Amino acid sequence: MQSTVKRGLAIAAGLTLAFGLAACAASPADSATGGENTDGTFASGNSDTLVFAVLPDHEGADQDAQPIADWIAEITGKKVELFQATDYTAVVQGLAADQIDIAQISAFTYYQSQNAGADIVPIGAQITKEGAEPGYFSVAVKNPAATDVKSLADFADQPVCFVNPTSTSGFAVPMGGLLEAGVTVAADNRLFGEEHDLNAKKVAEGTDCQVGFAQDIDADPLIESGELVEVTRVQVPAAPIVMQAGLPQDVQDQLVAALADSTQSDLTDAGVELNEFLTDGWFGFGAVDDKYYDLIRTLCTEIADEVEACRA
């Protein structure tokens, strides 16, 4: 069943799921255009090339993001190179070291990248379907044949399949919900599938764990097929597309004008063909600012004892 917006993540009075995604959303233009930066810098050292990164959160993530890379090339008139990330940490480090110009990341990775020293600006956040606000769901699931758990409280004292220690919907938000339910998952009971789709399949297989978490786009097909059963779901801040604040101002302005408050039609109007991944789970980007991600900062203060990435 779907939780109410105040359920699961609300581990403190000020940390509710009624975060009013639309209210927090605002144009990033002020922060993106606040200072003069006519020269700017590029990750590659070449003003004709932009380096673009995505999180390796599912199999084929780079290929699925290729239309966005092609779109950025159309917008800016520059060559776009994909940064080949082996894990989430590589993207965090790449952003902090100015080796990446633009990236599609998670809310938690945004938080981590800033903590690591990255000077990045959110352009927009992912909208998954027409008429929706930025945001998506972290889904708690169980193997229907192997366990009869009914709530997060029943996750106690058993292996739990998380996605990645730096995943928003696959670890940070689930840990907040579990702690609110009175469940502390011991280190040796934390298993990581690394990618949302693989993690959902691990729970469906039921060998290493019978309960776990994944984002809705990967959990829902297995729920619909009966291979998984939903325990609860929680809406989380949408994954942002970000840019380095050190990019030339004209490039920043081009990206904000084209990407913020965009839809699938903007991409196709630019002559870029949508692939199945984008058609199924990406409708566009909604403009957001840095404050939109304050919920993650608050969450990290609550789960820091259990989540090392929140202590960095």
Commentary on this structure:
The structure is a single chain. The chain is of the alpha/beta class and 312 residues long. The chain folds into 2 domains: 22-129 and 237-311, D-Maltodextrin-Binding Protein, domain 2 (3-Layer(aba) Sandwich); 136-236, Periplasmic binding protein-like II (D-Maltodextrin-Binding Protein, domain 2, 3-Layer(aba) Sandwich). 34% of the residues lie in helices and 19% in strands. It contains 13 helices and 12 strands. Helix 5 (88-96) crosses helix 6 (107-115) and helix 7 packs across helix 13. The longest helix has 13 residues, at 168-180. Mean pLDDT is 85; it is low at 1-37.
The level-1 CATH class of the largest domain: Alpha Beta
CATH superfamily of the largest domain: Periplasmic binding protein-like II
Helical residue percent band:
25-40%
- Number of helix segments? 13
List the helices and strands and how they pair.
Elements: H1 21-24, H2 29-32, E1 49-54, H3 61-64, H4 66-76, E2 79-83, H5 88-96, E3 102-104, H6 107-115, E4 120-127, E5 136-142, E6 160-162, H7 168-180, E7 190-192, H8 196-205, E8 211-215, H9 216-224, E9 229-236, E10 240-244, H10 249-259, E11 262-263, H11 264-269, H12 276-281, E12 284-286, H13 294-303
Parallel strand pairs: 1-2, 1-3, 6-7, 6-8
Antiparallel strand pairs: 3-10, 4-10, 4-12, 5-8, 5-9, 11-12
Describe this structure in a few short sentences:
With 312 residues, the chain is of the alpha/beta class. Helices cover 34% and strands 19% of the residues.
